[in-house]
Each structure stands twice: as structure tokens, then as C-alpha cells.
Amino acid sequence: RLAERCLPNAGFTAIATHDERIIAHVIDFTERHGIGRDRFEFQMLYGVRPQLQLALVRQGYRVLVATPFGTEWYFYLMRRLAERPANVLFLLRNLVKR
To answer: Which top-rank group of organisms is this from (predicted)?
Structure first.
């Protein structure tokens, strides 16, 4: 619900999630409160839920796709997987879909 506190303010809000329930809630909240699509964006990792990313863009929402690169990309990936072991299965499922 942090988004509900940030979105009504004059600043720009970035919503970093792949969770469709959170995305739907943000869309509903912004529509009910008259918050323009130019005041927020969704952020997602490259290769994770690309169909969802495309659907949001087609609906007129801004989507930033984060792409880890450079010398530290491997360590970033390993840290993310260690933070939440369920991410390993999530990663494998998304790789197989390709």
C-alpha cells in the first residue's frame, strides 16, 4: 500500500512488481483518483513476464524493463536467487517458456 501513499503526491512513482494483483490494484487506484499515466510507471525485470509487459504497454502504460548487465550481473542474479529460493523455479519456468 506504499503506492497509495506515493501516487497522490506531485512526484513520479515507479511500481516495481510482476504481481498482476498489485498491478491491477495500482491501475484501479490511479483511475479512481484521476492520477495520469504520465505520473507513474511499472518496472519489471527483462525476460520475466514479457506478455504482461507487452499487455501493459498496449493499454497505454509506461513499462521500464530492467536489464542487469556489466561485470556484476552474475552476482546480482545469484543474490536475487539466494534472497528467495522460489525464484529459482520461477526463473526456470520463464526460461523454458522461451
So the answer is: Bacteria
Q: Is 96 exposed, middle or buried (0-12, 13-18, 19+ CB in 10 A)?
A: exposed
* Model confidence pLDDT, tens digit, residues 16-37: 999 999 999 999 999 999 999 9
- Report CA 80 to chain centroid distance, whole Å: 15
Domain ranges of the chain: 1-67, 68-98
The answer to whether the CB of 62 falls within 8 A of the CB of 37 is: yes
Handedness of CA 21, 77, 55, 17 (dihedral sign): positive
Give the pairing of strands 40-45 and 63-66. Answer: parallel
